[in-house]
Amino acid sequence: MATPASLQNPVRDTRDLQDEKAREAYIQGHDADGIPEDTYPQDIEKGAQSNAHSTYTDERTLSGDDLATPPPIEAIDPNIIDWDGPSDPANPQNWTQKKKWSIIGALSATTLITPLASSFFAPGVPQVLTAFHETSNLMAAFVVSVYLLGFAVGPLIIAPMSELYGRTPLYNISSFLFVIFNVACALSKSMGMLVAFRFLAGCAGAAPLTLGGGSIADMFPPQQRAGAMAIWSSGPLLGPVIGPICGGFLVESQSWRWVFWILAIAGGICGILVLVVCRETYHPILLERKAALLRKETGNPSLRSKLAKDLPPKQIFTQAIVRPMKMLFMSPIVGLMSLYVAVNYGILYLFFTTVTFVFEGHYHFSSGAVGLAYIGVGVGMMIGMVSLGITSDKIIKKQQALGDVRPEHRLPLRLTMPGAVGLPIGVFVYGWTVYYKTHWIVPIMFTSLIGLGNLTAMMTIQTYLVDAFTIHAASAIAANTVLRSVFGALLPLAGLSMYDALGLGWGNSLLGFISLAFIPVPVLFKYYGERIRTNPRFQVQL
């Protein structure tokens, strides 16, 4: 922790000034220009390094450019509290690798469980319809999809709350509520009660999806983020794939209510893990805590965090609630990239709606074995996760050695194109092979391309958004999560009607043509992303 002298003066301590006149002038409050340069070059250098390393932001940072330059040394307010140099152990980026990866492990486990809940329940829908005397196919789809609507609404509350109170309290509160709402689902006495608590469980489960990317940005510099992002972002994709595999056998051996008991138990275990392991990583909150402690210790009420917002909490909350929507609708980068991910995610969930009736009806799988049809998607995602996690950081390190690191380096064509091209191919082949009732192994094999396409799109784009919108990464990810969840929730409701009208062949071909139209998106931002980010017409005042 810095000494009180360093808190009230640009120089850390008057003992660093070897010249007696310089020390006297400094103590009397004279301007730094009156002190000979050769008396404290080390302090000036360290101060510059501190600011270059800090989370200093200006308009360019808030608009998506994290290459902001620090203010000149002479402009530094002596009452501003920042990190104590580039090696400050309180800065989450300087934590030990063990501590960082323990937090990533806990968050990734939670980020797997909450998306898994979206489809874990799907095999039990027929039992629910029978138990509550429901016959509507629309309600059968909605009781599954309503959870994703919670994923769309939750981030709009969670993201702004995290700006006021930090990330860790939101993780802990949301984990507790997730358990409570799943217990309520298990005890539901009617379809309405089940739908309501499924929605609330989705709202609570959105916390790790909304804040996880921001936590990674807090702890890891750009050249180390891809591996952490690969593990964390695999949860929203692998979870819905693993869910039906496990849920099918559970429902077959027990009942649909046990799905929610298992989710409550798993959510509770992950919640305890997060409570024990995770520490606050949000830089503005940490610096504000430091400033508050030093105000108390020094009696200087003017001390304030470098990242403090001189606004009342209500206004901060209002701005934070609006920010994801502003980014979604006013930033072409956030808007178009979120739409690209949302379309892919919607196609994935539309595919999920066909699995049960295709593999039970066409291929005569049992209700337990039908979950195995999701393995192809899971294999594709695992391939994408491993390859991207290894390759992306290597590219950034190479660019760093060349002295040229930009967020657009997260979008190399060798990483984005296999998934972008593979997804429509997978959808086309899956649709026509199940239409002609080809051996079941063929459509399952080609669904791996659907998994690969979804993971490469989500991971590269989320990592890009984190790098481009550093301090507002959580808001950018929240905007992405909201649109993705809306598409994932609503498109499957129209899925069965579409397949009834067009059949499995042309119905999936329609989805394939839509995904083909989005292939240019990663190419566009690879070559023109920086120009768009820095264009004043496209910068959003956040």
UniProtKB/TrEMBL annotation:
Residues 103-532 form the Major facilitator superfamily (MFS) profile domain. One of its GO terms (molecular function) is transmembrane transporter activity. The chain crosses the membrane at residues 103-126, 138-158, 170-189, 195-217, 229-250, 256-278, 333-359, 371-390, 411-432, 438-457, 469-490, 510-529. The keyword rRNA processing does not apply. The keyword Repeat does not apply. Residues 1-71 are annotated as: Disordered. PANTHER family: MAJOR FACILITATOR SUPERFAMILY (PTHR23502), MULTIDRUG TRANSPORTER, PUTATIVE (AFU_ORTHOLOGUE AFUA_3G01120)-RELATED (PTHR23502:SF68). This is MFS general substrate transporter. It comes from Plenodomus tracheiphilus IPT5.
